[in-house]
Each structure stands twice: as structure tokens, then as C-alpha cells.
Amino acid sequence: MKNLASYIDHTLLKPDALDRDIEKLCAEACENGFFGVCIHGSWIPYACRLLLGTGITVVSVAGFPLGAASTETKCFETKRAFDNGAGEIDVVLNIGRLKQGDDLFVGRELREIVRAADGNPVKVILETCFLSREEKVRACRLAVECGAAFVKTSTGFGSGGATVADVKLLSECAGSNVAVKASGGIRDTVTALAMIEAGARRLGTSSGVAIVRNHSLPRSQDIVP
Which among 49, 48, 37, 45 is positioned nearest to 13, based on CA atoms? Predict the structure, then answer.
């Protein structure tokens, strides 16, 4: 049993974020008991200092938001994030390579990224708004085969975000050993709970405070994972 706040990666990935915005993000994470904060790599050391001793995880991103960077760049970003104190990394897969059927490239890249993470959790962002059902299934299976800890629906920068249907599909494809993170467009308690009911084990959202403070669902209310 977990409360709703413990599902949430409190997210700030805007390009114009300032240090005071990171401070606010981390303070809200502490106040509300969120699982983690999700930020760009340049802010990792600062967030780690702010969250020292709190138990809140610093999550960062690689190949973000397009997924089209070189494998070497994604691996460097991944390793650097963990060297700087991050606890998890969310990596965008190469969407174009997947869509053209180059599963060999996609799988090889994901394996190299997982290797660069050196045992730390890797979440693979599929950007489902650009994929057909068959492509979502293939992408999910590749992520599972390559040792990812999570598959994640969206960056929040594409043409669409998480849907209940996609979370259900990915949960079925991922099986019991790989979790699903729903992200993109989750702005209220009803939507958050629907994603969890569909199988999400983590929620990426910049609306975490509003979600957990919704008067219809007290923060302390437990929900079945």
C-alpha cells in the first residue's frame, strides 16, 4: 500500500528554470512526500544539496526531449548524471530508428545506456504519441530485453501525453519485472488515479502539489499499487 504522493516524480524540465524554481520544486517535494524530483542534468548537484538527507530521489533525463542524440551522447549524459548524484535517469529512445524498423540499433543503444547506468535505474521514454500500437509494443519489448527498470509514456514535449489505454498496453507488455511511468498531461487527482489503476507505478507531473492536495482525496489516503 502506498499513498498517492509516493508515486510522483515532481517535474521541472522547462528550459527557462532558475535556481529559485529548483528550490521551490525541492521544497514542495519535501513538504508533500513525493518520490523524487525530475530535472535537467545541469541542476543535479544543486538539487542533491537541497535534498540531502531527505530520502527524495533526484531523477534526470538524457537524450531529452527528442531522442535523436547519438548513443555516445546519451551514455555520457547517463553516466554523468549518476556521477553527479542522480538516482534514476529517464532516457528518450531513438524514435525515428524505431519507426523505420531498426530494432537492432534501438536495442544496442538501450543496452549501452543501461550499461552506462551501472546498475542504476533507467526509464526508457517511448514518446507514445508518435507511435502506432505495434511500435509501442516493439519499443516496450526492446526496453524490457535491454534491462530497463521502467518504460515511460512521454516527455511532455510531444504532441500528446499519457493515456489510460497506453498505460494498460505497456503494463501488459512489460510484465511483472519492468514498471510503467505515466507522464504528460497528468494534472489532476482523477487522472493520476486512473493511470495508477491502469498499471502505472510512477507518475511524472509538474502538477503534483495540486494532485495530492485535492480535497476529494486526502494525502494520507492509501491506494493499492
Answer: 37
- Determine the residue type at 143: A
Give 210-221 as a DSSP string.
Answer: HHHT-TTS-TT-
21 is a catalytic site residue: no
Half-sphere exposure in the Cβ direction for 166 (13 Å, CA)? 26
Is 90 among the catalytic positions? yes
pLDDT score of 217 more than 90: no
Query: Could you give phi then psi for residue 67, rounded to 5 degrees?
Result: 80, 5
Looking at residue 214, its pLDDT comes to 79
Catalytic site residue from 79, 123, 152, 166:
152
The pLDDT-based confidence of 132 (bands split at 50, 70, 90) is very high
C-alpha distance from residue 50 to each of 1, 22, 47 (Å)? 28, 9, 5
Nearest one of 23, 133, 147, 129 to 67, comparing CA atoms:
129
Choosing from 74, 79, 123, 181, which is the catalytic residue? Answer: 181
Contacts of 138 (CB under 8 A, 6+ apart): 98, 103
Tell me, yes or no, if 123 is annotated catalytic. no
Residue 113 has pLDDT above 60, yes or no: yes
Q: Which helix (H) or strand (E) holds 57?
A: strand 57-62
Please, which pLDDT band fits residue 220 given cuts at 50, 70 and 90?
Answer: very low
Residue-wise pLDDT tens digits, 62-72: 999 999 999 99
